[in-house]
Amino acid sequence: MSDILATIPLSAIRLFEAAARLKSFTRAAEELGVTQAAVSWQVKALEKRLDQPLFQRLPREIVLTPAGERLSRAATEAITVLRTAFSDLVDTGEGVLAITTLQTIANQWLAPRLGSFQLANPKLAVRLETDGRMVDLTREPFDVAIRAGGGEWPGLESHFLFPSELTPLCTPGLRERLGGLARPEDLIDAPLIGLPEEWAAWFRAAGVAAPERTALAPRLTGDAQMIEVASALAGQGVALGSPILFAAEIAAGRLARPFEATFALNGGHWLAYPRDRRRSPKIAAFRDWLLACAATAS
């Protein structure tokens, strides 16, 4: 049995790995661009070659057998090693660092700083894309992500950058029209932009009972912070925004921060990348640079 691997095509292992990970022949076929029948046939051929079942075929699902579980873990590790090896080869030839993050982080914090990274790494081009969904870094063409959350994502190594905290922001003119906003209670009757539940959390952090009313802005999905603060910049009301991400607007006097009280949202902001690619030179260079930038965030 020592030469059994030589008789099994890599395509069969790849199809089995996808089916085991997705727990579906149909979804594995969609991911790999083949037919469901091809996946089923390859898995049956693999089971016949191994002389034991890898899946239990139930009426509406497939479940790995104990043998399938063992082979699934090994197949996933093998595919990951191959993917890493190919990625490293591509890294050497391309010299492109692909970053994915939320629009607010990209526009307000990362983009203004990227010039210094480019100057320090002139042979490395940067591709920055914004996406409201959580990109799968193990399968999609991105090297790193800057994302909000708790910092624990399977298969990824993550580094804390700065907290994800929100505080009321408005124009100095609106603050004056609202009487100066000397106390958190002064916001109860103010035009509030954003989600009522987020405002309720801020009022609790400030030691004030939240007003029982809806906020001014529509309930936006995804990364709405930049849009809401843009409304505040237009004088339409008071929005909840990050004092770190909007530090430039606060320092320039375009936005006023009436209160020090903040409330934590989504744990924090993190740099994340596949754990098996942590030695990639371009990822290491970006990580070291970004952590140095984050150390100065306040």
UniProtKB/TrEMBL annotation:
<protein>
    <submittedName>
        <fullName>LysR family transcriptional regulator</fullName>
    </submittedName>
</protein>
<dbReference type="GO" id="GO:0003700">
    <property type="term" value="F:DNA-binding transcription factor activity"/>
</dbReference>
<dbReference type="InterPro" id="IPR000847">
    <property type="entry name" value="LysR_HTH_N"/>
</dbReference>
<comment type="similarity">
    <text>Belongs to the LysR transcriptional regulatory family.</text>
</comment>
<keyword id="KW-0238">DNA-binding</keyword>
<dbReference type="Pfam" id="PF00126">
    <property type="entry name" value="HTH_1"/>
</dbReference>
<dbReference type="InterPro" id="IPR005119">
    <property type="entry name" value="LysR_subst-bd"/>
</dbReference>
<keyword id="KW-0805">Transcription regulation</keyword>
<keyword id="KW-0804">Transcription</keyword>
<dbReference type="InterPro" id="IPR058163">
    <property type="entry name" value="LysR-type_TF_proteobact-type"/>
</dbReference>
<dbReference type="InterPro" id="IPR036388">
    <property type="entry name" value="WH-like_DNA-bd_sf"/>
</dbReference>
<feature type="domain" description="HTH lysR-type">
    <location>
        <begin position="8"/>
        <end position="65"/>
    </location>
</feature>
<dbReference type="GO" id="GO:0006351">
    <property type="term" value="P:DNA-templated transcription"/>
</dbReference>
<dbReference type="GO" id="GO:0043565">
    <property type="term" value="F:sequence-specific DNA binding"/>
</dbReference>
<dbReference type="InterPro" id="IPR036390">
    <property type="entry name" value="WH_DNA-bd_sf"/>
</dbReference>
<dbReference type="Pfam" id="PF03466">
    <property type="entry name" value="LysR_substrate"/>
</dbReference>
